[in-house]
Design a protein that fits this description.
Spore Coat Polysaccharide Biosynthesis Protein SpsA, Chain A, alpha/beta, three-stranded mixed β-sheet, 14 strands, protein N-acetylglucosaminyltransferase activity, 15 helices, single chain, about 425 residues, binds 2-acetamido-2-deoxy-beta-D-glucopyranose
């Protein structure tokens, strides 16, 4: 009576196991087949491209060692301290505790260089310090979890982007276009490549270079791997980091771009940071740069300046900032759609970013860091990050006289670029 059910149970277990193993074997072989298939199709796609480098195609994350910030030498302006109130909000408290430690040799800021350690430390600190953390929107919670973690592996690093530089300064990068994009925006990148973002050599041997800065694709994106591999190989302008693309990670994106430039493009005179859907009148921009007095050229922070703004408290806004997170006004800042900054400012900005905690809105954050360095954004009427009047949007003469306009479709970029270069255009 007892033996039979036991035996039956044994047979049952055995057959289930056998079935499972068969299933696993079949699954494994199809998996192999599939990777093999996608691998050959990628190789086929690239066999047309010369000098193919399989290492790049396979996109193994590479580690990127952050340069040491000059934290011993950071001083924060008095006007910054006056702008940002000292109160009970989390970010404000974090800031003031760091300001208090500024200059102390055993400052804990150095430990922030390890991504995993930092993430753990953040998580613990959040539980203790943000009493209503659970009421924050999910993306905001995600932001806080990795807040101030910055060491991230790269999926495409472009170490030779700004080479070669001749010893006499020939072929030095005059302007580096640092364009915030995301993996799905191929059409926008291509329009930028064909229009305002062209890499070219200006008279006097001055170069314009271009990088698109990307994170990882959104989870809901289709497989963009093959197209991205192609872009990396063929255009050599994709700087991709191994972190999740998201609006609230733009500050992280900017803060990885700073050390990247310090390491791999240290001689860039100017950097243009902007979105992939803006129109830039590059000849007008170059003329403007060349017109700058040498004394001013090293402290340029120019764009469409937003004055007397403050946090938006509407939970539905993508710019939402909870009161318990940050309480105070924003310092003046240049709108993130597109602004210019001197290469000479990148190192001080990078160093001071170890003192000013990351803020989830990237252009506000740059404004804060600049303010801490005592650099004020300069307004320029040629930068229209809120776009021109509705009736002027197809007006070529208006565009010919501006430097930056937000925001245009790829087709419109093509139309505007051709138009402002037409010899028939008389304004
Ligand atoms: C501190 O910064 C100043 C100005 O940027 C620089 O001249 C000086 O050499 C720096 N000092 C150290 C110890 O790095
Ligand atoms: C500068 O770069 C251009 C184009 O990349 C090249 O043709 C030229 O020879 C370079 N100049 C020098 C001095 O190497
Ligand atoms: C930013 O990227 C990190 C690393 O991939 C991720 O853990 C975090 O959730 C992202 N933040 C947001 C707000 O998505």
């Amino acid at each position: 009576m007892i033996l039979i059910p036991l035996m039956m149970k044994g047979i049952y277990v055995f057959s289930v196991l056998a079935l499972l193993i068969t299933f696993l074997m079949v699954f494994y072989s199809t998996l192999n087949l599939e990777t093999a298939k996608s691998y050959t199709s990628e190789v086929k796609l690239f066999s047309k491209v010369e000098d193919q480098n399989l290492d790049i195609l396979l996109s193994e994350p590479q580690s990127f060692t952050l340069p040491e910030p000059d934290v011993d030498n950071v001083s924060v302006s008095e006007s910054f301290r006056q702008t940002i109130p000292q109160n009970g909000a989390y970010w404000n408290r974090l800031l003031y505790s760091r300001l208090k430690n500024l200059g102390k040799r055993e400052s804990p800021l150095r430990d922030k260089l390890s991504w995993s350690k930092c993430r753990q430390a953040n998580e613990e600190s959040l539980k203790i310090n943000v009493h209503n953390f659970n009421s924050y929107p999910a993306p905001f919670q995600d932001f806080l979890r990795v807040m101030d973690c910055r060491s991230s592996a790269a999926l495409a690093l472009l170490p030779h982007k700004c080479l070669p530089i001749e010893s006499d300064g020939e072929n030095q990068t005059l302007l580096l276009f640092a364009i915030k994009s995301n993996p799905g925006n191929f059409e926008r990148r291509q329009a930028v490549r064909e229009t305002w973002g062209q890499e070219m050599l200006y008279p006097n041997g001055l170069q314009i270079r271009r990088v698109f800065i990307l994170g990882n694709p959104y989870p809901e994106d289709p497989n963009l791997g093959p197209l991205l591999s192609f872009e990396k190989e063929y255009f050599g302008d994709i700087l991709q980091w191994d972190f999740q693309e998201s609006f609230l990670n733009l500050t992280l994106k900017m803060n990885l771009f700073l050390p990247w430039t310090l390491k791999h493009c240290p001689h860039a005179s100017f950097v243009f940071s902007g979105d992939d859907d803006v129109f830039v009148n590059t000849p007008a921009l170059v003329t403007y740069l060349q017109s700058l007095e040498p004394s001013k050229a090293s402290r340029v922070y120019v764009g469409h300046v937003i004055n007397s703004a403050g946090p938006i408290r509407d939970q539905k806004s993508k710019y939402y900032i909870p009161t318990s997170f940050y309480n105070g006004p924003y310092p003046p800042y240049a709108g993130g759609g597109g602004f210019l900054i001197s290469g000479a400012l990148l190192k001080p900005l990078y160093s001071v970013s170890f003192v000013i905690p990351f803020f989830p809105i990237d252009d506000v954050y740059i404004g804060m860091c600049a303010k801490a360095l005592g650099v004020s954004p300069q307004g320029h009427a040629g930068f229209q990050t809120f776009d021109v009047k509705e009736e002027d949007r197809d007006n070529l003469c208006i565009h010919k006289n501006l430097i930056l306009i937000h925001q245009r479709l790829p087709k419109q970029l093509m139309y505007l670029w051709k138009g402002i270069h037409s010899p028939l255009l008389s304004c």
